Amino acid sequence: MIKGIDQSPRPTGHPQSRRARATALVAATGFCAASLFGCATPAPIVLHDPVGPWQPRATPEDGSGQLMVYSATRVTTADDSEYPVHTPYTIYGADNKVLRDVNNTAGLFSQAPSTVSLPPGRYQVKALAADAGYVIVPVIIESHRTTIVDLDGTALPKRDSAQASDDAQLVRLPNGRAIGAQPE
Predict the structure, then answer these.
(1) Are residues 92 and 58 in the same domain?
(2) Which of 53, 93, 128, 150 could form a disulfide with 145 if both were Cys (CB 3.0 to 4.6 A apart)?
(3) 5: in domain
(4) From CA 161, how far away is CA 166, in angstroms rounded?
(5) Number of domains forming the structure of the chain
């Protein structure tokens, strides 16, 4: 017997043993409920058509291209409710390994997303879309051009029915909203 510890068995009706059983039951119930309902997240939507450069823009002279992802926005504090910022996203390389996690803010007082310089090539972006949850979008970066991925509906020009012929050149989410231009 260890000195100072009472190892005598407690009767089943003892208050400490009932409390331990109740605590274990609550913990098990909570774990089961969380595993069934609360912890599951839906799989991201995976697009197959790549988004390419939208238009020429000033880019670095080193031959790289740029990427701007207009991901869904969020408010970090009640004081910032008038100035939502874009949610972070991840860039994956051709080998599907994480290349960069992007905070996606252009500065302390800017609502614009960050601009990322990348060597020309194919990448994948995993980001939060405003009306579709997480999406994985293949992107093409070209030298001296900017690729824009519009996941919040604010970056691309609004289209009307007169411009329907341009629709074939757009990459869309499953809900039909355009998110970027197909590469040329």
Answers:
(1) yes
(2) 53
(3) no
(4) 10
(5) 2
Residue 4 is encoded by which pair of tokens? 């100072």
Determine contact, residues 85/161, Cβ cutoff 8 Å: no
pLDDT in tens, 53-86: 876 665 567 789 999 999 998 877 666 567 788 8
Q: For residue 113, is it left (φ>0), alpha (ψ between -120 and 50) or beta?
A: beta
Q: Is 99 exposed, middle or buried (0-12, 13-18, 19+ CB in 10 A)?
A: middle
Helix locations, the chain, DSSP H: 15-33
Write out the residue range of the structural domain in which residue 17 sits.
Answer: 11-40
pLDDT tens column, 116-170: 999 999 999 999 999 889 999 999 999 999 999 999 988 887 654 334 445 668 8
